Backbone:
């Protein structure tokens, strides 16, 4: 088993390759979560939440994920780091989740988190959420990789309306 992360360029190439062969958005999300969970050493939970209508409101609904089951399968936009990222359309990196009052616990082991919105035609349609058992696991390279992964899904959705 490798003990270092792969070169970011390699991961980005593999993400692009997944988009080229995906048969459906779910297929692509499965592929992205599997790739990032397997290849990135400190990515202990990797999943997508996608926006759905609940009455008149939008709500984040858990999609494909890798890692242990989370209690948070539906997250309102005014809750959690996930709600904050989706409602602002900004990537959020939390180095220490215990210091952020917005944080909704997925597992007791989680120490840091990144949430990256997925855009279609400039509008947020969901997000990629990654948790780590390590403090401050998400650095500049991780942000690049995760934002690329979210953009790959967004572009795929734009091409397959
Ligand atoms: N931690 C997230 C909730 C999702 S679980 O981590 C999988 C949040 O604060 O929104």
Residues:
């Amino acid at each position: 088993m490798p003990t270092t992360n792969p070169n970011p360029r390699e991961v980005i190439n593999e993400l692009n390759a997944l988009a080229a062969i995906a048969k459906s958005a779910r297929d692509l999300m499965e592929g992205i979560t599997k790739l990032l969970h397997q290849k990135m050493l400190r990515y202990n939970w990797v999943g997508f939440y996608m926006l759905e209508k609940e009455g008149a409101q939008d709500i984040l609904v858990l999609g494909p994920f890798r890692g242990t089951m989370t209690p948070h399968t539906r997250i309102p936009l005014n809750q959690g780091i996930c709600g904050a990222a989706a409602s602002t359309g900004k990537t959020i990196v939390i180095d220490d989740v215990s210091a952020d009052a917005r944080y909704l616990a997925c597992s007791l082991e989680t120490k840091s988190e990144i949430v990256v919105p997925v855009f279609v035609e400039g509008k947020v349609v969901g997000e990629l959420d990654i948790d780590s058992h390590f403090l401050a696991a998400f650095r500049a390279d991780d942000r690049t990789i995760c934002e690329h992964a979210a953009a790959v899904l967004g572009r795929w959705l734009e091409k397959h309306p």
The longest strand covers residues 45-54. Residues 114 and 138 are 7 Å apart (CA to CA). The longest helix spans residues 140-159.
